[in-house]
Amino acid sequence: MIRTFIVFGFAVLLAAVSVSLVAPRDMDKPLLMELKERYSRKHPPKVDHSKFEELNRTFSSPSEVTRECENCHNLTAQEVMKSSHWNWEREEYIPGRGIVYLGKKNAINNFCISGKGNEQSCGKCHIGYGIDSQGRGFTDSANIDCLVCHDNTETYAKAPERAGAPLETLDLNNIAKSVGRPKRTNCGVCHFLGGGGNNVKHGDLETAMFEPDRALDIHMGVDSVNMQCVDCHRTERHNIAGKLYSLSSMNLKRISCEDCHTGTPHEKDILNEHTIKVSCQACHIPVYAKENATKVHWDWSTAGKLKNGEPYVEEDEMGNHKYMSIKGSFVWKKNLKPDYIWFNGTASHYLAGDKVVDPSKPVVLNQLFGSYSDEDSQVIPTKIHTAVQPFDPVNRTIIYPKLYAPEKGEGAFWKDFDWKTASAVGMKEAGLPFSGQVSFIETKMYWPVNHMVSAKEESARCEECHSRSDSRLAGLTDFYLPGRDRSPLVDIGGKWLLILTILGIAGHGSLRILVSLKGGRKEASDGE
Amino acid sequence: MANKQVLVYKGFERFWHWMQAAFIMFLAFTGFEIHGAYSFLGFENAVRYHNITAYMLIGLVIFAIFWHLTTGEYRQYLPTFKNIMAQLDFYLFGIFRNAPHPTKKTLLSKLNPLQRLTYFFLKIVLIPATILSGLVYLFYRYPSRNAIDAINIGSLKPVAIVHTAGAILLVTFLVGHLYLITTGTTVTSNLKAMLTGYEELEEEEVVEKDGEKP
Questions:
Q1: Are the Cβ atoms of A519 and B98 closer than 8 angstroms?
Q2: Mean per-residue pLDDT for A172-200?
Q3: A191 contact B CB<8A
Q4: Which of 1.20.950.20, 3.30.310.50, 1.25.40.10, 3.40.50.300 would CATH assign to domain B3-208?
Q5: Which of residues 219-278 of A touch B (CB under 8 A)?
Q6: Which residues from B are below 8 Å from A10, CB to CB?
Q7: How far, in Å, CA of B162 to CA of B144, rounded?
Q8: pTM of the predicted model as reported, rounded to 2 decimal places
Q9: Among A195, A181, A209, A222, CA closest to A40
Q10: In whole angstroms, what is the distance from residue A113 CA to residue A121 CA?
Q11: Euclidean distance between CA atoms A419 and A300, whole angstroms
């Protein structure tokens, strides 16, 4: 009786435990539906700019359009002129360095190195007109380029090497009448093409994202929710949320997946637990540069070769520049698995004039902080871009070369192909000492990958990290990862313990068989 | 000295034994996959089944503890060092000379001194250590953002090492255990007893059990 009771009780317990563990819990479905509904809504304009008499005229210059905007939006210029898009710098706090002003204005990267001294060319990605190295053009609100962000005709385009001015062939009247909420194209013309070509810099932001499909980006896919950049990069008074750590240092004004999806979006608790240490992106962006290749290495040291005195260009099998006389050699890659690092939202940067301590090692231009033991850190996917770039071996500083000038003879490398004069002119414009010597140094940059989110079916599987060989997290060795790590002592010791046990049994067993065979014969003879 | 068929292992005991055997073998199978030794079910399924089986084993162990305490059968596992050398001598030498078992199996003492010691270690040290480290492993919340400082675990490593070492020792035990099954009165008598419950014991021992009667 008691026995039956115990067995029955046990069976009930087993059943209850199994059901509670196996039964899936649908907790995220309503939230996902709500999000899809919310972000699929149209944004009808509050006013129809084409009806305004003021805009129904011909404009002789883009600044005239700006003036016309300001006539109604008469406080907006103040907002815009506080933004980093305008100032090309932002106040940042770097642990150990204090407050610094970081931005395109002064920072160094390992692509086109610096905008400093090259404003006329780089100004193509400034939201203003008439930018120059002396800082003129940052103070006059008539220089604000409202249209580059707010044109909704998708025809507005900046002219090359005109310090931010648009092409002269544009129909400014038509464009001015179209203005509205920024579309993917408005952001993309700069952010997809930074570094001098498509997908050079980010790897996850490129021209395929103008009209991506669901497979390329689950959020922005035109056959999915068709989200625009500004749906996530929410903007208040021209202050845009979200920032990239090539130029940021503080854990502020970031955008996170959790903002919409909550910190526990999975049906399975075991996945939700991962979010304490693993970013959403780490699993949900298993691959980037899905459509077009991105630049992973840039070697400036080979630049300057000429054919018949003329600069030339070579392409790789994907049609990307492999060599350019003005820029050096490149390595492009497609369908990349990200590199994973710990990141707590803070970073340090190489700033103008910083002395390189050990020039034999690659200089990390934007050191992202984080570790397993740091409770604010998560594993994030990044693109690592390496480069070989000009360096002053005497002052041990990275060189700001003068790259662009309209004419030969001004020292610009892209016209004169001489590193020494380009460095001397560039360093002078940057206000930095220069020894006259030019060597080359290896550098490294981390570009967090946040876009090109895949459908959940495509996200990284457990064993892509939890595996002995080829783990995605093979580079992060400061913690114990089940399936990847083991204690050699326990594993090898255990293996030998088992082997010796089996050998002992085999010996003992064979001896018994042998003895029993003999014994059997003995017994048999005894019987006789 | 007549022999008699006696119910040595009761119904629950056999149920518990075989369920535990099955659970531990399945846990080892899934566990070593999680450990990265091989790939069969896939990591996600291995973890899932390992966890479900772990809960079932814990449930079983709770019932077994209850049964052992209420029936007093736990006394079978209290270690004794009496005759332990004789038992060791038997396995190392006597068994090859067809010598009789040095200790007699009775209902009150169905385990020999080496079994007592081994099972005692198994039940008091090895299984609890493996289950407890497994529970910590299961409920480990990374360094838990210091939400509850007292249960903050800086690293999974020691937990994983204890759990893996426990698993390896359990597998080693299992291998030895499987072999020692064959060292009963006959090669199959121990296995039969654990399957049917009945084993042929010497009559006098049974009398001894009901010693007060005559």
A1: yes
A2: 95
A3: no
A4: 1.20.950.20
A5: 270, 273, 276-277
A6: 59-60, 63
A7: 21
A8: 0.89
A9: A222
A10: 13
A11: 10
Distances (CA, A) of B167 to A80, B138, B163: 64, 15, 6
pLDDT band for position B3 (50/70/90)? confident
Q: SS3 for A137-192, per residue?
A: CCCCHHHECHHHHHCCCCCCCECCCCCCCECCCCCHHHHHHHCCCCCHHHHHHHHC
Model confidence over A205-226: pLDDT tens digits? 999 999 999 999 999 999 999 9
Residue A258: is its pLDDT beyond 60?
Answer: yes
Question: In one letter, which amino acid is B87?
Answer: Q
Q: Per-domain residue ranges for chain B? A: 3-208
A391 in Cβ contact with A438 (< 8 Å): yes
Question: What are the pLDDT digits (tens) for B26-73?
Answer: 999 999 999 999 999 999 999 999 999 999 999 999 999 999 999 999
Closest partner residue to A483 (CB to CB) among B12, B35, B176 is B35
Over A259-306, what HEC string results? HHHCCCCCCCHHHHHHCCCECHHHHHCCCECCCCCEEEEEEHHHCCCC
Q: What is the mean pLDDT of residues B126-131?
A: 96
The percent of residues in chain A predicted with pLDDT above 90, rounded, is 76
Residue A115 tokens, joined: 């905008």
Residue A331 has pLDDT above 80, yes or no: yes
ipTM of the complex: 0.87
Q: What is the pLDDT, as a whole number, of residue B148?
A: 58
Triad A274, A275, A280: Cα angle to 5°: 110
For residue A91, how many other CB atoms are within 10 A of its CB? 13
Where are the alpha helices (H) located in chain B, listed in sequence order?
A: 11-34, 43-71, 84-92, 113-121, 127-139, 157-180, 189-196, 203-209
Distance CA B139, CA B132 (A): 11
Token digits for B99? 């010598």
Helical axes B189-196 vs B11-34, angle rounded to 10°: 110
Residues 6+ apart with CB under 8 A from A180: A45, A49, A150, A152
**List of residues 6+ apart from B136 with CB closer than 8 A:** B153, B159
**Nearest by CB: A276 against B39, B141, B154:** B141
What residues of B are in contact with residue A501 (Cβ under 8 Å)? Answer: 172, 175-176
Chain B contact probe: residue of A22, A266, A276, A456 with most B CBs at under 10 A = A276
Count, in order, helices (H) and strands (E) of chain A.
17, 15
